[in-house]
């Protein structure tokens, strides 16, 4: 049988790196032996095409193995992983059904076992990646994620107080559609692609990917997008045209930008009043209602959409609390205390009080912009008509 054959892609010559210096004979022999059991190989250097990551393919006995190599320099946390998603996309495009995808650690310079790195390894493994030499470089074995809630929980753990670092979110809407909201420019796109391909392996829900616009850059690279679409994931690009249509069509506003901004400000879906975390029944509730924004004078349509989609103009509320808030049976004071309408039937009042766990919004939600929206809402209401909600 002919010897295993490597094709090495041209990224290794960027920044004057010479692939012969990085992928030494020893390394290639090691990779070859781990994949085929043989130590002899042939190699071609492929200088055609565009930058597709630190990728080599190894063909042997009718099978093709895609091998992505780690960066030497760890740099920012996303630069360490930036080559892998392109390799994963190429692997998905491979037409040989006898294919596999692998990751190989080159001797790294620095800590490659931070919480974020481990999270990314687990996503890679979930997406079907085989780590060829993790035992040589990591102290604990990489476990794939078993479920989407597993992914979200681990994500939240990493995120801690540092929400600003996160560029993509995973949630489920009222129709049991799993939604990924991702920024799609710069380093953020790598995480978005990897999340999609990993979650696709473990979810039984249908999936949507929302590409969140920022500036002019709002679409994933075409090949990554094509692979995501080919898996049956519905890709929706959030832009002003879509937002305008949503804004004009309905008052509850199922706007992707709004959901994204709420996720960014408030974190995962969770009713702020009763702590319900079932995402299918959690909604973004406007403080300054969309219907009132539409009626506002002297505002351009763009400004109105900005108000309607602002993260500061909303709360996560469960269906019940959203409805009660919308009909003004619940009231939020300017310092974030919850009140309920007096003069309603006693049994109704008792019921209302029975499923409120928090009678005060968390302090960090009460930004000046949020309080500004409360003023706009509350000036049409009379605080005297509301009683405090006592909690045992
Ligand atoms: Zn609730």
Commentary on this structure:
The chain has 392 residues and is α/β, with parallel strands linked by helices. The chain folds into 3 domains: 5-143, Rossmann fold; 145-238, Rossmann fold (3-Layer(aba) Sandwich); 254-392, no CATH class. It has 15 helices and 15 strands. Strands 2-1-3-4-5-6 form a 6-stranded mixed beta sheet, sandwiched between helices. The chain has a 4-stranded mixed beta sheet with strand order 7-8-9-10, sandwiched between helices. A hairpin with a 5-residue loop joins strand 7 and strand 8. Helix 3 packs across helix 7 (188-202), helix 4 packs antiparallel against helix 6 and helix 9 packs across helix 12 (301-309). The radius of gyration is 26 Å and the shape is elongated. 34% of the residues are buried. It binds zinc ion. Zinc ion is lined by residues 271, 273-274, 276, 317-318, 320-321. Residues 271, 273-274, 276, 317-318, 320-321 line the site of zinc ion.
């Amino acid at each position: 049988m002919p010897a295993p054959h490597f094709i090495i892609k041209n990224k290794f010559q960027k920044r004057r790196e010479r692939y012969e210096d990085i992928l030494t004979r020893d390394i290639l022999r090691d990779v070859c032996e781990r994949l085929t059991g043989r130590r002899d190989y042939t190699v071609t250097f492929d200088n055609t095409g565009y930058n597709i990551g630190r990728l080599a393919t190894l063909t042997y006995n009718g099978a093709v193995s895609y091998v992505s190599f780690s960066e030497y320099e760890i740099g920012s946390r996303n630069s360490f992983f930036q080559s892998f998603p392109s390799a994963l996309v190429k692997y998905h495009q491979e037409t040989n059904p006898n294919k596999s995808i692998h990751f190989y650690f080159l001797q790294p310079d620095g800590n490659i076992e931070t919480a974020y790195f481990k999270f990314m390894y687990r996503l890679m493994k979930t997406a079907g990646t085989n780590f060829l030499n993790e035992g040589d470089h990591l102290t604990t074995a990489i476990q794939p994620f078993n479920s989407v809630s597993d992914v979200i929980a681990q994500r939240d753990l990493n995120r801690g107080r540092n929400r600003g670092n996160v560029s993509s979110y995973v949630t489920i809407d009222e129709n049991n559609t799993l939604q990924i909201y991702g920024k799609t420019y710069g380093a953020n796109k790598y995480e978005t692609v990897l999340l999609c391909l990993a979650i696709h392996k473990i979810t039984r829900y249908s999936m949507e990917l929302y590409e969140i616009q920022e500036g002019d850059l709002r679409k994933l690279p075409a090949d990554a997008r094509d692979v995501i679409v080919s898996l049956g994931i519905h890709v929706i690009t959030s832009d002003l045209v879509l937002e305008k249509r949503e804004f004009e069509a309905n008052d509850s506003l199922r706007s992707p930008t709004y959901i994204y901004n709420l996720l960014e400000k408030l974190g995962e879906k969770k009713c702020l009043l009763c702590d319900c975390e079932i995402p299918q029944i959690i909604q973004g509730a406007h403080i300054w209602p969309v219907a009132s924004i539409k009626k506002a004078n002297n505002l351009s349509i763009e400004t109105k959409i900005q108000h309607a989609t602002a993260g500061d103009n909303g709360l996560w509320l469960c269906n019940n609390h959203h409805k009660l808030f919308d009909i003004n049976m619940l009231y939020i004071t300017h310092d974030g205390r919850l009140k309920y309408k007096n003069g309603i039937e006693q049994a109704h009042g008792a019921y209302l009080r029975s499923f409120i766990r928090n009678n005060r919004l968390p302090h960090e939600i009460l930004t000046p912009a949020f309080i500004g929206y409360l003023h706009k809402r509350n000036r049409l209401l009379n605080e005297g008509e509301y009683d405090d909600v006592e909690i045992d």
